[in-house]
Amino acid sequence: MSERRSLAPHPVIDQSSPSRAVRALSIRSVRKVYDELEAIRDISLDVLEGEFLSLLGPSGCGKSTLLMMIAGLLDTTEGEIAIGGERVSGPRREIGVVFQSPLLLPWRSVIENVLLPIEMLKLPRRVYEPRAMALLEMAKIAEFADKLPNQLSGGMKQRVSICRALVHDPRILLMDEPFSALDAITRDEMGLELLQLWQIHRKTVIFVTHSIREAALLSDRVLVMGRRPATITSEVAINLPRPRSIAMTEDEDFNRYVRLLRTAIEASHGA
């Protein structure tokens, strides 16, 4: 692979930075009701700057609903979500979102898809185009910058989607089951590549998944969500060393966390 390009002028946050203890996001008594269906009930939590937080639970338990409220794409019925003390009332520049489907525009090349947020935010292209190429290099798809989405594999399309979400340098990255449509091997590879990008940029990540193993491998902390109306039923800190690897999934320490999370899910959904 060619030499990694700098992402200047955006600084890399060191892993030992004191910003680790700064609150990036706060959620207070949030509730969401669709017509007469209560999807989310009284959720409160804080997310720290630079934290990798996963929301874990089976499909349909409200994880994506909570994520879309954080993104400002859904309104809360009750309660408040705030970033830097300011209430979230719509989409914000400091938030990047990666959806379950890559949602690439088929008529635009890879690099043009990545630069789409720059156009929408009316930011200077000449400043952000080198950053876009640097992200594609780190995602190992720079050679496909001029290709169309239909020339890419599923995993490559999701890499483009992640680069697009990061190109405008958001503080918070929201990811809604981004690897669920991939095969097991590609999913593991994508998870490790995501961790490498996270180690470099140290964005605050909120990651939705229904995979216990994925949550344990990626996260600093995992919140288990119970059945609808969803609440946070358990919180598990994942105290495993970083950087992480697929090999550690064979270790007893890792599997102890997997068992702990599985027990928490079974308890919340069996209640």
Entry summary:
The protein contains 8 helices and 10 strands.
Secondary-structure topology with pairs:
Blueprint: E1 23-34, E2 37-48, E3 52-56, H1 63-71, E4 78-83, E5 86-87, E6 95-98, H2 110-114, H3 116-120, H4 125-138, H5 154-166, E7 172-176, H6 184-201, E8 204-209, H7 212-218, E9 221-225, E10 232-237, H8 252-270
Parallel strand pairs: 3-8, 3-9, 6-7, 7-8
Antiparallel strand pairs: 1-2, 1-4, 4-5, 9-10
What does this protein look like?
By secondary structure, the chain is α/β, with parallel strands linked by helices. It is built from 8 helices and 10 strands. A 6-stranded mixed sheet has the order 6-7-8-3-9-10, with helices on both faces. It is globular and about 50 Å long. The relative contact order is 0.18.
Proportion in helices: 25-40%
Major β-sheet strand ordering: 6-7-8-3-9-10
Q: Using the alpha-carbon principal axes, give the shape.
A: globular
What is the CA-CA span between the terminal residues?
Answer: 51 Å
In angstroms, what is the radius of gyration?
18 Å
Biggest sheet record: 6 strands, mixed
* Average pLDDT taken over every residue: 87
Beta strands, count: 10
Structural class: alpha/beta
Instruction: State the low-pLDDT regions, or none.
Output: 1-20
Output the number of helix runs.
8
- Helix/strand order: EEEHEEEHHHHEHEHEEH
How much of the residues is beta strand, in percent?
A: 15-25%
Relevant terms:
271 residues; alpha/beta; six-stranded mixed beta sheet; four-stranded antiparallel beta sheet; 8 helices; globular; disordered N terminus
